[in-house]
From TrEMBL:
PANTHER family in UniProt: ACYL-COA DEHYDROGENASE, ACYL-COA DEHYDROGENASE FADE28
Alphabetized InterPro entries for the sequence: Acyl-CoA_Oxase/DH_mid-dom_sf, AcylCo_DH-like_C, AcylCo_DH/oxidase_C, AcylCoA_DH/ox_N, AcylCoA_DH/ox_N_sf, AcylCoA_DH/oxidase_NM_dom_sf
UniProt keyword annotation of Oxidoreductase present: yes
Cofactor(s) of this protein: FAD
Species, as recorded: Streptomyces griseus subsp. griseus (strain JCM 4626 / CBS 651.72 / NBRC 13350 / KCC S-0626 / ISP 5235)
Annotated signal peptide: none
Keywords, comma-separated and alphabetical: FAD, Flavoprotein, Oxidoreductase
Domain Acyl-CoA dehydrogenase/oxidase N-terminal: start-end pairs: 6-118
Name the record gives this protein: Acyl-CoA dehydrogenase
Family of this protein: Belongs to the acyl-CoA dehydrogenase family.
GO molecular function terms noted in the UniProt entry: acyl-CoA dehydrogenase activity; flavin adenine dinucleotide binding
């Protein structure tokens, strides 16, 4: 695979890394996550206004840069390195592509320029608490069971009423940036049981009957919320009242997985770099900890794992169909690398306040939110038909139905 980047792509990475290095510090993340928004609003304005980060992958007609998933993945790799809490993932990676894919011309013209400018943040709210299932990453989302399936539970859409609007009932847990987003994209079940379908609806943050509660999250840099809707007015995303949004969610999920893979690689790489610097400086028995052969071997294994995940992420950025598998590899690399980082930092790594813990919690939190790894791989294998191919190697029916000697012995025959 040719992983060479253009001069413009390198410039995006360099500029963002320098800005985050100047804006960061030991107390920057704790201060940002304790704000009402869960991120630093001033820094977000600089990222949006100065660098155009939320509009990187949006068309120029909407005020975006007209770039691709690759540029957005490179930007998220840098935010992953810094564990930067921003609404970039929820707004630009999850919500904006769905608005672009499903929205009417009027909806796109009204919303996407504001997203590109950073003045409008958005969040995707799906019922059941399983964002990975809704995006088609860990299971088939076509049956709509995760959205309520026409029965009790999930989020139900009623209408249209006399005014042409819809009303939503239900709740969604673990909504990324759901407590602070200006706009919610809510996945709801519509049509009742006979005409079952899943659709997306636009809900303004100030809508009546909407209650949002910020939750305590494992990873503070990924603020999560519970969204409750009680007779809440909503607008259908798109013009086709009979359309099903699951295909658009799946397509958005592939691209999001590729971007998330790059972000996880940034997290793993930064944790590894910080660990290498620590073992170079930390001395034990009169010599640097990093000079011990056992430590060198562990670090070398981590380096190979991170670089393999990086290659997979870069490939997926160019071909989002490979996104789920790349995400699985990147999440696995991040989990192992951050766990080893805590171990190799010794006693100080186990203190709750140390930065090594932040990297570990980011890796663990991302797998809870977008995984787990084995389900990402299982679903990708099923989509590729690997289990069907393996079935051809099963024993013939006559042989398989004959009990083995071990089974007969165990049964007392």
């Amino acid at each position: 695979m040719d992983a060479a980047f253009t001069a413009e792509q390198h410039e995006i990475r360099r500029t963002l890394r320098e800005l985050l290095a100047r804006s960061g510090g030991p107390d920057a993340i704790p201060a940002a996550v304790r704000t009402a928004e869960g991120y630093d609003p001033a820094l977000w304005r600089r990222l949006a206004g100065g660098l155009g980060l939320p509009g990187l992958a949006l068309a120029e007609e909407y005020g975006g840069a007209g770039c691709t998933v690759t540029e957005l993945a490179l930007a998220c790799e840098e935010t992953g390195r810094a564990l930067l809490p921003t609404p970039l993932l929820a707004t630009a990676v999850l919500a904006a592509p769905l608005i672009d894919a499903l929205g009417t011309p009027d909806q796109r013209a009204a919303l996407l320029p504001r997203i590109a400018a950073g003045t409008l943040t958005a969040a995707l709210a799906v019922p059941g608490g399983s964002l990975a299932t809704a995006l088609g990453l860990t299971g088939d989302n076509a049956d709509g069971a995760w959205a309520g399936g026409g029965r009790a539970g999930g989020i139900q859409a009623r209408g249209p009423g006399e005014d042409g609007g819809r009303r939503l009932y239900g709740e969604a847990d673990r909504v990324l940036d759901g407590h602070s987003a200006h706009l919610l994209l809510v996945a709801a079940h519509a049509g009742g049981y006979p005409r079952s379908r899943t659709q997306l609806f636009l809900v303004d943050a100030g809508a009546a009957g909407l209650a949002r509660t910020r939750l305590t999250a494992l990873d503070e840099t990924r603020p999560l919320a519970r969204v409750e809707l009680r007779d809440t007015p909503a607008e259908l995303l798109g013009a086709d009242a009979d359309a099903d949004a699951t295909a658009a969610l799946t397509a958005a999920g592939r691209a999001a997985a590729a971007i998330l893979a790059a972000e996880a690689v940034g997290t793993a790489a930064s944790a590894l770099e910080r660990t290498v610097e620590y073992v170079k400086a930390r001395e034990q028995f009169g010599r640097a900890v990093g000079s011990f052969q056992a430590v060198k071997h562990r670090l070398a294994d981590l380096y190979v794992r991170v670089e393999a995940a990086r290659s997979a992420a870069y490939h997926a950025a160019r071909d989002p169909e490979a996104g789920p598998l790349a995400l699985a590899q990147a999440l696995e690399a991040a989990g192992i690398t951050t766990g080893e980082a805590v171990q190799l930092h010794g006693g100080i790594g186990f203190t709750w306040e140390h930065e090594a813990h932040r990297y570990l919690k980011r890796a663990a939190g991302d797998e809870l939110l977008f995984g787990p790894v084995h389900r990402l791989r299982d679903h990708a294998a099923r989509r590729a038909g690997l289990f069907g191919a393996a079935a051809a190697f099963r024993q013939p029916a006559a042989t398989a139905s004959r009990p083995s000697a071990g089974l007969a012995y165990g049964a007392g025959v």
